[in-house]
Amino acid sequence: MTSIALTLCLCVAIFTPQCMGGRRNNVISYIMNHVDELQQRQDAVTPSFGPICEGRNYQIYLDPLNWSAAKLKCEINGGMLAKIRSQDIHVAIVDYIKEAKLTSTIVNDAGKGLWIGLGDKDEEGRYMWVDGEELDLNECSQYQGWAADEPNNNDKKDDNGQDCVQLWKMRQFDWDDGYCNDSKGYICEYAACDPSCVACL
Ligand SMILES: [Ca+2]
Ligand SMILES: [Ca+2]
Q1: What range(s) does the C-type lectin domain occupy (predicted)?
Q2: 200 in any annotated domain
């Protein structure tokens, strides 16, 4: 092989997609090995509902994740863990859960719930939405859908207490601070460019 041919060969080897083969094959291998799991996760996704206000679109997911993983999943999907801005939105989401009869044990077993984008992980008692807005527990002008006696930062199961907020089945899907490492379903929120969203709730 001439030096020119050798150089050409090396260039082709470097710049053709084959150079990415190892990484690509790893991705393909991962997908092939997890296709059933991925399909199950897809099947677990309920249809999205909305937009219900301000052009937002909320979607419920039933593949159980801890709070941080759920937050990341929403962000990977191009949205964020849901921010419940008003009672109307809260009611609309709860009505959807009930009307859609989400029979999954992820939602309906005792103690279950759905993560939303609120918590006090960084500073106990200082609740922050995932978009950076603080929810002042003493501020009546901000909608707050807490269940009675919540948030209580219960530390029976974890000395760190409870820092992540769920819509809790046990309390008719009112807000409750739960243990962040528990695996639950979750609600993502997306911007929705839908002209039908003219009558905000
Ligand atoms: Ca807490
Ligand atoms: Ca609690």
Answers
A1: 53-189
A2: no
